[in-house]
Amino acid sequence: MADIFVERSSTGFLGNLGGSCVGVLLGPLFLLGAVILLWWTEGRTNLADVARKSVVLAPDRAAPELNDKLVALSGPLLTEEKLGDPGFLRPRPAIRLERAVEMYAWVEDEHSESRDKVGGGTERTTTYTYRQEWSRKPSSAGFRHPEGHQNPPAPVKDETWSASTANIGQYRFAPAEAELPAGQRLSLAPDDLAFGGAGAGGALEAAGAAAERMAPGMVEREPMRDRVAGAAASRPGVAPPVALLPAGTPAARFDSGYVFLGGGAVSAPRLGDVRLSYELLAPGLAVTLFGKLNGSTLAPFTYEGGSTFFRALPGGREQAIATLDTEHTVMTWILRGIGFVLIWIGLGAFFGPLVAVANILPIAGKLSRGLIGIVTGIVAFVLWAVLVIVSKVVHSPIALALVMVVVVVGGFMYLKKRAAAAGQRA
What we know:
Blueprint: E1 3-11, H1 13-42, H2 47-52, E2 55-57, E3 70-76, E4 82-85, E5 89-93, E6 96-116, E7 122-135, E8 159-162, E9 166-168, E10 171-173, E11 184-185, H3 199-212, H4 224-233, H5 241-244, E12 252-255, E13 258-261, E14 274-281, E15 286-294, E16 297-299, E17 301-302, E18 308-309, E19 311-314, H6 317-349, H7 352-358, H8 362-395, H9 397-425
């Protein structure tokens, strides 16, 4: 059952007027932020253009003549290594393994409503709702009403493991250094759990029990607990469970497709219960890797401005370039949209005091907000379009040269026409 808290506050006319005056001072900052953002957006490097300059590298033959150049290597992504989650998940062939941790915890929802009052004041009602659900970020540090809604610390955290080496054909690279495609959700079964499903805590408890069963007088040169941790560390891509799990971590078990830690169940959890899921990038995916060739290995390629490019994308070279082009276009329009909103907010802030005064009659305040929103929206669009065009032209040498040619030719034609008109009058 949810816990609900309702808070009400009122702000008078002078308070609203003062707040709107502060907004007037912040308006130029929004406009400046929009200019900077749009300028930077139009100057961003399209990685598709970088990738188009790559040289195709055949995966089955050496190419010393391409050393230190940007190459495009296509083929199945392979590795001989296995990755696992110490104490929880048995190792399996993988390029990358990601652990996602969810805790059954308190979460806070905040909902606010404002109502204008005659005289220019405002009444604000804020509702805080607390309920328990599965959460990736179970912190209660910022709760408005933390009493009775404290979340315990998670016994484990999100973690990512990468194979130390992977290869495409005869060329090797370090997966941890490259940006790789997203993995697939791993469908778990009971046999996937490490240590027979007992969890790391169970494994260490078993090690301790084994040590206690040693015959009197026997000396253990290496503690059993350390040997369990060492054995896990010796497996490729697997770190010791002792280094990851704090004392008192509950034993893990399989439950409804998750690795589950806690006293409840996935279907009937208790506060503080934890469930683990995994994403796996398995070997065999056909990709194109862009990077710098160093003999038989690939490494990050440095291009203009000192930025690096080292990325594998699904499919062949042309498909990978098309993907990069699409990503750049989508992100460009998202940033342009943010820039437009910043301009709109900045312009609207200048009219805040006018709205505050009109709000003495709530209906007048509502109409003024609507009218000002429409007008500033139109002006913001014009300014936004000008900023985008100017930024794009200045960042493009070809476009800038064309504009300069048009200006020079247009100016020459205008002056020639004026001179001809003056001659006729004379």
